[in-house]
Amino acid sequence: MNERALPNPETDLSVLVDELAGHLLAADLTLVTAESCTGGLLAATLTERPGSSRWFEGAFVTYRLSAKTRMIGVAAETLASFGPVSEPTARAMAEGALAASDARISVAVTGVAGPDGGDPLTPVGTVWFGWALGAPAPRCVQTSCFEFAGDRAAIRAQAVRVAIEGLLEILRPGA
Fold it and tell me: Which residues face 144 on adjacent strands?
């Protein structure tokens, strides 16, 4: 299911955020997040860095289905047909966050952090990501799914790391 390597817990998260900030500033891009299972943890991690307002537009914490629809335009039909933890929903969240903001790059995170809420098809630890680049319409959208292990805090922390690493993959020269 994973198209990307699992996160490297050895790299300090602040180092990754510093690298991300450098790439965003060099490319004159601003970032927006659309978060569900991380509940704003990604935005909080990004804004720990002083000066983040130069490259961080903001965050949509769309925990409930109604928030996904109302705030970032995820179609109710998408949620009904595929569920909130799915590739189409992650894609729609990433695209919707761009459309609802002035940012030019986005990342979306939707998953099951547990300890309950999973099912046989979408067990606890399943997290879908969407990354979109371009505005006003995305030129590029990438999605990926991970199945993380651990408790709720560990799953959310791993999701934050993957979201940042995915942004770096898009922004690094030669990507």
Answer: 129
